[in-house]
Design a protein that fits this description.
309 residues; 17 helices; five-stranded antiparallel sheet; elongated; transmembrane transporter activity; D-Maltodextrin-Binding Protein, domain 2; ABC_choline_sub-bd
Length: 309
C-alpha cells in the first residue's frame, strides 16, 4: 500500500515536471521591438498570451542591427520581424553561424511596391510599364516616403527604367504621402505611390499594386515573408514557449485591422491586440494548440481567463 502511494506521488511529480518543460530562465521572455506598428501589434499579441500562460514577457525598443546582435549575445530571446528577402543578405551571417534560430513564419503575402487607386487601374494602369504613356495625368510624379527609403525608385529614375527617367520621386513622409493619395482619391485625380501591406492604407483605399517592378522591389509585388527568430538555444531551453511562437501565425487582415486601430483610431497596441484576439477565437485556439501554461496546465483556458474571454 505504502509503495503504491509513493509510486503514485512520484508519477504525479514526474508528470508535472514533464509538462512544465521550460527551464527556469524561460519564465522571462524578452521580445525585441523596432517601433514599427505591425511589430507592436504582433509583439503585444504574443506578450498578452505569454503573460496569460504565466510567463513574464517584456518588449525592448532596439534598432534592427542591435536586435540581431542582442539575439546573438543572448540579451534578447525573440524577434518577430525577420522580413525576407529584404534582411537576407545583410544578416545572413547570423543564420550561417547559428547565432539565431528560426521558430516559424508569422506572416505570408506581404507586399511592397508601387500602387494606384482602383479608378486609375480601371483605366488600364496595371504595370510599371503603363505609367510613362500617361505621364501628364500623373504630373510625372511618384509619391514616396521619407528620404532614405526610396532608393529603388530613385535608382529606377536614374537608369530611365520603364521610360520614367524624367519623373520626380517626391520624398516626404508616410503621412504626407497618404494625404496626397487621400486628396487624389477624393478628387478622382491620378496618383501613383509607394504602397505596402500590411498597413491600414489597404482598408482606407481601393488600391491596385502594379506588376512589372521585379527589378526595383522583387517578384510577387515586392512579396515578403516574415519569420519569428530567436537566440540560439531558445527552442532547447524553452520548448513550450517556442511551440507558441512556432504556432503564432497572423494574416494580412489581422494586421491591417489591428494597425488601423492603432494608427487611425488612436488605440494602444495593448487595446488593439486584445480586441483582435477577441475577434479571432479560432486563431487563439490554433496558437495554443499543444501549448501549456508555464507550470504545465492547459494553456487555452488559462489565456482566455486572463483576457476575460
Amino acid at each position: 500500500m505504502r509503495t503504491t502511494i509513493v509510486f503514485a506521488l512520484l508519477s504525479g511529480l514526474l508528470t508535472s515536471s514533464a509538462m512544465a518543460a521550460d527551464a527556469a530562465r524561460c519564465q522571462k521572455v524578452r521580445i525585441a521591438d523596432l517601433g514599427w506598428t505591425d511589430i507592436a501589434l504582433t509583439n503585444t499579441t504574443a506578450q498578452l498570451i505569454l503573460n496569460g500562460l504565466g510567463y513574464d514577457a517584456s518588449q525592448t525598443l532596439l534598432g534592427l542591427g542591435v536586435t540581431y546582435s542582442a539575439l546573438k549575445e543572448g540579451d534578447m530571446d525573440v524577434f518577430l520581424g525577420n522580413w525576407r528577402p529584404v534582411q537576407d543578405e545583410e544578416y545572413k551571417s547570423f543564420f550561417d553561424e547559428g547565432s539565431v534560430e528560426v521558430l516559424g513564419v508569422n506572416l505570408e503575402g506581404a507586399k511592397y511596391t508601387l500602387a494606384v487607386p482602383k479608378n486609375v487601374s480601371d483605366q488600364g494602369i496595371k504595370s510599371f510599364d503603363d505609367l510613362a504613356a500617361h505621364a501628364d495625368k500623373f504630373g510625372r510624379k511618384i509619391y514616396g516616403i521619407e528620404a532614405g527609403s526610396n532608393k529603388p525608385l530613385l535608382d529606377m529614375v536614374a537608369a530611365n527604367r520603364h521610360g520614367l527617367g524624367d519623373w520626380e520621386i517626391v520624398e516626404s513622409s508616410e503621412a504626407a504621402m497618404l494625404t496626397q493619395v487621400s486628396n487624389a482619391v477624393a478628387d478622382k485625380n491620378w496618383v501613383v505611390f509607394l504602397g505596402w501591406e500590411p498597413h491600414p492604407m489597404n482598408l482606407d483605399y481601393n488600391m491596385t499594386y502594379l506588376s512589372g517592378g521585379d527589378v526595383e522591389f522583387g517578384p510577387n509585388f515586392g512579396g515578403a515573408t516574415v519569420r519569428t527568430i530567436a537566440r540560439h538555444g531558445f527552442s532547447a531551453d524553452c520548448p513550450n514557449a517556442a511551440k507558441l511562437f512556432a504556432n503564432l501565425a497572423f494574416d494580412l487582415d489581422y494586421e491591417n485591422y489591428g494597425m488601423q486601430m492603432i494608427l487611425r483610431q488612436g488605440k494602444s497596441a495593448d487595446v488593439a491586440a486584445r480586441e483582435m484576439i477577441k475577434r479571432n477565437p479560432d486563431k487563439l485556439a490554433k496558437w495554443l494548440d499543444g501549448v501549456s501554461t508555464y507550470d504545465g496546465q492547459p494553456g487555452l483556458q488559462a489565456v482566455k481567463s486572463a483576457l476575460g474571454q
